[in-house]
Amino acid sequence: MTKTATLKLGLIGDNIARSRSPLLHRLAGQQNGIEVAYDRLVPKDMALGFDEIFDGCARQGYHGINVTYPYKELGAKKVEVDDPLVRAVGAVNTVLFGGFRPKGFNTDYSGFMSAYRHVMGDAATGTVLMIGTGGVGRAVAFGLAGLGTRRLHLVDRDPAKAEALAEALKSVAPDMEISIWVGAEKAAEGCSGVINCTPVGMVGYEGTPLAAGALQGAVWAFDAVYTPVNTRFLQDAGAAGLKVISGWELYFYQGVHAWSLFSGLGLDEAALRASLIKMGDAE
Q1: What is the Cα–Cα distance from 243 to 264, expressed in whole angstroms?
Q2: How far, in whole angstroms, is CA 170 from its chain's centroid?
Q3: Catalytic one among 38, 62, 69, 71?
Q4: What percent of the chain has pLDDT over 90?
Q5: SS3 category, 17
Q6: Which pTM was predicted?
Q7: DSSP labels, 44-87
Q8: 71 noted as active-site residue
Q9: Each residue of 164-197: pLDDT tens digit?
Q10: What pLDDT does 203 receive?
Q11: 211 CB neighbour count, 10 Å cutoff
Q12: Contact in structure between 116 and 147 (CB atoms under 8 Å)
């Protein structure tokens, strides 16, 4: 991509009025001398379905889009995915247009791994509880496999979704011990890491997916929610002495990785992080 081009990007999702992805990609563009147009595409607000918006993006000149809750699994069905691991994840959050078929990628998977290492370094994850096995949950679970997690407790209101994820994980982590639980509090016993991959805690879905008392004995916590950054779940985790990995870190790294796909260009990550924080993005 030339530095004189305008890069037209978008985000399809529900409840994304406070998404900071437009800011991240515009700042990334500024670093590279590229004007970035990044639109929020909300099906309800546009009185259109996901398929209609997605199919219109290529016709309307979008170079690429991000896909967020609750459309990541739907998005995976509409794209060509070259990476077998991403095919196994079954969810995409980044799409490129321009070829015979749109190409799908998952930077939640790689972004979670980077977020974990940024906070925890090389420390092992230990036994992990993950609540929520939808699009972002599937990506995070594969990230856990990449980090070497050996025991994983899954909780979902729909046990069939958890079972499907457990089956998919066998392709990349055949030795991982995966168990499916009905109650999160019981499943948290003996876990070093606790993860929220549900929308509970985000703006419009206030609350926490796990009682504060169930965090005792854990070492670290991650919340995929990043609006707000400091969710009640993470506040409880911090008060219990856990190391906290905010959804902002996943947002940051998935965005960095998506930018690379969108533009083919690099970034000064430290400068981007500093700019976002200076503008109040991590508050």
Answers
A1: 34
A2: 21
A3: 71
A4: 89
A5: coil
A6: 0.92
A7: HHHT--HHHHHHHHHHTT-SEEEE-TT-HHHHHTTSB---HHHH
A8: yes
A9: 999 999 989 999 999 999 999 999 999 999 999 9
A10: 82
A11: 11
A12: yes
- Mean pLDDT calculated for residue range 144-158: 97
Q: Which amino acid is at 93?
A: N
Enumerate residues 6+ apart whose C-beta is below 8 A from 277.
Answer: none
What would the two tokens of residue 220 be? 């670290």
The mean per-residue pLDDT over the stretch 58-67 comes to: 96
Q: Which amino acid is at 205?
A: Y
Mean pLDDT (the chain) is 94
Confidence bin at 281 (pLDDT 50/70/90): low
Ramachandran region of residue 66, left (φ > 0), alpha (ψ -120 to 50) or beta?
A: beta
Q: How many residues does the chain have?
A: 283
Residue found by looking up tokens 């990334």 in the block? 28
- C-alpha 207/C-alpha 196 separation (Å) is 12
* Measured distance CA(167)–CA(184) in Å, rounded: 20
**Nearest-CA neighbor of 144 among 152, 156, 136?**
152
Q: What is the 3 state secondary structure string of 111-140?
A: HHHHHHHHHHCCCCCCCEEEECCCHHHHHH
Helices vs. strands in the chain: H and E counts, helices first: 12, 11
Instruction: Name residue 251's amino acid.
Output: Y
* Residue 127 in tokens: 């036994």
Nearest-angstrom CA–CA distance, 141 and 131: 11
